Amino acid sequence: MQEKTSQARLYGHPEVPPDAGTNGGLIPLEHKTHNGVPHVSSPIILNRSSHEVREDRLGSLDEVVERLSPSDQRLVRELVFKLAGRPPQEQPVAEDTQPPDLTGYVQAWAARLTLEGKSPGTVKVYSNLVLTLLRTHPSPTSDDIEAFLMELGKRCRPGVVANMIFALNSFFSHLIRKKIIKSSPVGDIKAPPVPLRVRDIPTTAQITKLLNAPTARLKDRAIILVLVACGLRSAELLNARRRDLDLERRRITVIGKGNKQRIVFMAEQAVAVLEQYLSSAPNSEWLFPGRDPQKTLSPQALDYRFKNLSSRAGIQKVVPHQLRHYFASFMLNHGVSLKDVSHLLGHADPSVTAKIYWHLVDEQQRLAAYEQNNPLQEINEQELRHAAEQLGFDFEIGTSGRS
Q1: 52 has which bridge partners?
Q2: CATH 1.10.150.130 fits 103-177, yes or no
Q3: Which class is domain 204-356?
């Protein structure tokens, strides 16, 4: 009798078995309804670590769930409806309310971006951009976002503001899909136009000096030649494994953005240096390992190598990604089609390539078209000579000079 009494004191009811409470530690003792909505009158929470039990009189379901996050609230309501034998009811999102702090939802959104194929670098950038806003405005309104973007525009390039708006649209769209908010506070804010810029492309002379720098080792030359010959991104180079190489067929398989695999060809010169480098390189699965052969070279170490080589070669600093620009510009300037160059670079669409290398795309065709449609070709040569004389010039076709 005393044993039953101790069990009743421990679990709140003599018929509750000693192993009760293993379902999350929450034991609902009685289900009631209030206006058709079930609630828990007296749950008992089991502390498994110490095997002690305490009883919390938490009242109605609303008092219980208000302590939880919105996603946990939905889970609790679904559980209670299930225990009551009733189908779950959709909880509408209030028009004028949203969670007090949206910071806790960034991690789940970032995981969603990864599943959608975004690169780790892109996910990190977008997450940091959104967190920059949420640190000062945990539950931002439209006015908050507009003021924040205006201030950001004073300090940053239009491209940064455009990325911020894209990241915010993606984040709030995720919250809407999860029924956490009703509408996006970004509203109809448009990204600013991003001016096209000419890429800083190293010259052939600079690359030659880089290869012949006094401190350049065989590994450095192999890295430079692979980047120049294949147009790889730094991440693609660093994540390349030796098994990805096919030196006999002069190609390498790389994983680009969005985990997309592609095959890139290599020039004979790059293959020859790679064979020489691999014959003396330490045993490793990575094509270019770091000091620890079990790990690949880090991005920071790669940047440091190029900084050191540029300095010792006596040239302006060249960064690894500039060699990708050199590859693309060389191909386009020598007649390779935009579609083929786009595929070799691993771009999702040729329009991406055209946007980056807009100043090179079909440049020779534009020049030929201009020569055939010179705006001055319909003006009489004699009239041009007379106009030049009036201005004090000696006019000859193809030459000009002040008398």
Answers
A1: 47
A2: yes
A3: mainly alpha
Report d(CA 39, CA 70) in Å as an integer: 17
Would you call 188 exposed, middle or buried from its count of C-beta atoms within 10 A (0-12, 13-18, 19+)? exposed
Torsional sign, CA 144, 130, 102, 171? positive
User: CA angle, 80 as apex, 78 and 85 as ends, to 5°?
Assistant: 95
CA-to-CA distance for 277 and 377, rounded, in angstroms?
58
Which residue numbers are catalytic? 233, 257, 321, 324, 347, 357
- Report the candidate in 138, 237, 127 with the shortest Cα–Cα distance to residue 171: 127
Closest alpha carbon to 297 in 235, 359, 225:
235
Between CA 197 and CA 128 the distance in angstroms is: 25
How far apart, in whole angstroms, are the C-alpha atoms of residue 156 and residue 153? 5
pLDDT confidence tier of residue 14, bands split at 50, 70 and 90: very low
Q: What is the pTM of this model?
A: 0.59
Domain boundaries, the chain: 21-83, 103-177, 204-356, 373-403
pLDDT at 157 over 60: yes
DSSP count for the chain of H helices, then E strands: 17, 8
Which of helix, strand or coil describes residue 104? helix
* Tokens 């680009």 sit on residue: 256
Q: Which residues contact 163 (CB under 8 A, 6 or more apart)?
A: 125, 126, 129
Mean pLDDT throughout 274-285?
Answer: 93
Mean pLDDT across the stretch 156-165? 91
pLDDT of amino acid 353? 86
- Report pLDDT for 69: 63
